[in-house]
Amino acid sequence: MSHNTFGQLFRVTTWGESHGPALGCVVDGCPPGIPLEAAEIQQWLDLRKPGTSRFVTQRREPDEVRILSGVFGDARTSGQVTTGAPISLMIDNLDQRSRDYSDIATAFRPGHADYPYFAKYGVRDYRGGGRSSARETAARVAAGAIARKVLGEGVRIRAALVQLGKLKIDPGRWDWAETRNNPFWAPDAEAAARWESYLDELRKDLTSVGAVVEVHAEGVPAGWGAQLYGKLDAELAAALMSINAAKGVEIGEGFASAELTGQQNADEMRMGEDGPLFLSNHAGGVLGGISTGQTVIAKVAFKPTSSIPTPRRSLNETGEEIEVRTTGRHDPCVAIRAAPVVEAMTACVLADAFLRHRAQTGGGAFVPGQDGRR
User: Fold this and answer.
1) pTM higher than 0.85 for the full model?
2) pLDDT in tens, 134-148
């Protein structure tokens, strides 16, 4: 099975299965000399781990990360720093219940990757989906923590759940601090209250629902990305679409830009004290595949959780027509725990873009009205 690696200079390879003994990742290309402790990675994993509320899977995993390589510390340093060698991270799986899947060992669950995996490889791990399980995203969050260290404190990446089914937040009530005050990563307290009763009803009806996560990356300077085949927005879209259960990505206005006129869509510019000042951000911080210095904004649409206890018509490996009812512990809305994953993938893409930009240009960028590279 190939294609488990993404990135060019900041390269991430994830490994492991949902019901295997462990999972993890190898991060290659991290510059040397960056302070890195396991606790700095753990803080992000704790935001993604299961069992944190009644609205997510009750699988109990501490998701405790171990750094196996790529760091060094001795009496001459105040802590561990990266060495430039590959950083290997491992997270043990401690709460698997593989017996929950014994009844569907040969069945193709509708909405899952069971059939295409079997059609391609002739073998599949039916216990939670193996590599196709959202459990794999724990490794991505761990890699994203290292990417944040590469980017430094000047780049701030935050994600929020902005739509659950047909219920949307009110942008006028957007409060980033609120995302940590409710179990939905919602930036709108009133929307979170509505979602709570809505999800309780969905659970009673033995079904699930999709949602939309929006991510903002502030502090990204102008110049990251490349024209044509290295577009920052294209690579960001590809990374976000690679998240399990993602079915759509928009950059900036996205599909809504098709309804705008040229006058409405153009992000007009004026001269500010520190350089160009944009009067709007319909482009989502990227033009021509290159960052503009504005906030990079993307949205990701996630499908409803496919594992539901309601019987669904399907087939098994012998072609027999059957009904499938999935038991076990599953999220009624997989996107609830997706915000940290979206943040992590955004961080990895930006870290890669930063290192490539620095390699090609030395990190400089022309700023109108200021001395600089022209």
Assistant:
1) yes
2) 889 999 999 999 999
